[in-house]
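Protein Record: Sequence and Backbone Structure Tokens
======================================================

Structure line: whole-number tokens from a learned vocabulary of local backbone shapes, matched to residues.

Purpose: to set a sequence beside its fold so the mapping can be learned.

___
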Amino acid sequence: MTDLWQRTATDLAALIRHREVSPVEVVQAHLDRIAAVNPQINAIVTLDPEAALSAARSDLPEGPLHGLPIAFKDTHETQGMRTTFGSPLFADHVPDFDALCVSRITRAGAVRLGKTNVPEFGAGSHTFNPVFGVTRNPHDLTRSAGGSSGGAAAALASGMLPLADGGDMGGSLRNPASLCGVVGFRPTPGRVPSWPTETPWDTLTTAGPMARNVPDVALLLSVMAGPDPRSPIALDAPFVADLPRDLTGLRVAWSPTLGGLPVDRAVLDVLTPAVTLFESLGCSVALADPDLTEAELIFRTLRAHQFNLAFGPLYDAHPDSFKPSLAENIRAGRSLTASDLGRAGQAWARQWRAGLDFFDRFDVLLAPVSQVPPFAADWEYPHEVAGVPSESYLDWMRSAYHITVLGAPALSVPAGLTPAGLPIGLQIVTRPRSDLLTLQVGNAFENARGPLLTSRNGLAVDT
């Protein structure tokens, strides 16, 4: 089979299980695809083909991912493989352990190929760093692939990988999925526990799955999810993917600007007709905005605090080794007072109650993932959004990080393409801990939407 790199993870797993193809054939097909397109895209930044083929020939664990190739996000520690965090300070760093999400995926039978590119220390939603350079969008090489899981999204979109792991604080799974035309899922915090971590009670950040369709995301989530005694926020129940669902009667809120955020017209021109598909699926759809008035204060305060905790000592030792925007974030966290953190905590409590009230009235929230289409790869961030000038590299990410503070599962699923062939993602959000419902809604939408013919330049795979 010459098209193995185009197949979904679910299809490949079935082919391997029924012995129609071998893990070696699947891994080799993806290595060949990497050799063909990665030099243009720069999504996979560390690659060990010999070790991957050796593993594929060995007795792999007979798990759900048996024989499927994967490259791990370069912020997730991977034993015996260079993990740089996109920073020159860690350019030669080789961990002696696996992060929890990495160990779960490999124990499920996946074959490790390498690592996917990230922004410096995962900060920002455009993937570039001084170690490996910029990752480019397979749909248009002059455009950004998003971030921080931009290497993962670009590798998926171009057929270099069938599955990818990522992480999300302010949209790092969702934004690159939207910009690259793949599926990214930010689960409820605790669904995919993290270890090691210096902030084990953190619910802003979570690991999660990416793939080219919703069933594949659900497959990977079933492996990544589950309790771990080292995580105090880990949810006890494993995740079981049962995606087919009749959506008749679901109450759907469509919030095109999430209460007044600037959103590029090209984004809304794709999403507005896509939302009408939910009516054909039997849902009742109404225009409604969640109350997110305190989301900005909450996210920016707590994010700065966490950046100072994570990187402050390293910044003190190497102040010239951080990009200016990240250094500014660390200094902002350092300037916070106890009163600032207290106000943010109290605001988060009010925001949590407002979110629950909203999901008492609606089962599903639909919104843009990103406020702009894929932007120029040589920019750090969009200069403006719908005519509103950007004051920082975070401004265009509000439609993602305002959802973060709800503590809710959020899915980015491709909704369509702009006239220029650039992908636009729809964000599907449900009540906290309703991860299965979120994926069921996304699966139904994906099936109703039909395929997107995206391979205009031969680099992007149809979804």
